[in-house]
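User: Can you help me understand a structure? I only have the sequence.
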Amino acid sequence: MKTIKVNVVTPDGPVYEAEVEMVSTKAKSGELGIMAGHVPTVAPLTIGAVRLKNGNNTDYVAVNGGFLEVRPDVVTILAQSAERAETIDLARAQAAKTRAEQRLQNNDGSYDSKRASLALKRAVNRIQIAEMR
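Assistant: Let's start by predicting it. Here is the structure, written out as C-alpha cells:
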C-alpha cells in the first residue's frame, strides 16, 4: 500500500514524523481520512485524536486544535499543542480533568467557564489516547 509522509508540529517543535498509509483525524467539519494521493486540503482541527495507521501498527497523537494541510506528498498538522500517546502523563491528565470538573461545578465567577470546559475536553482527550497505547 502507498504511504504518505506525516508531520505533526507545534510551536515547541516536531512531535511526530513518519511515513504512514492512512491519517484519520477530526476537523471542525467532521472526520477526515487521508491516504496517499488525497486531494489538497486545508482544514481546522478540533481537540481530538490523530490516528496514524501503517500496516498493523497504529500510532495516536492527541492534538488540541490547529490546522491540517494535505498536499500530494505530505500531510502537515500544525497544532497548538500535541502529544504522542506514549508520552502522555496519565496521572497529570486525570488531575487536570478533576480540576476542570471542579471549576465547572463550583463556578463562582472566579474562573472562566469556557476556559474550564476546554481544559476538560483536552484532559479527556489525553486520557482516552493514553489508554489506547
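Now, to help you interpret it: Residues 113-130 form the longest helix (18 residues). The beta strands are 4-10, 13-20, 22-27, 30-35, 41-54, 57-71, 74-79, 82-84. Let me know which part you'd like to focus on.
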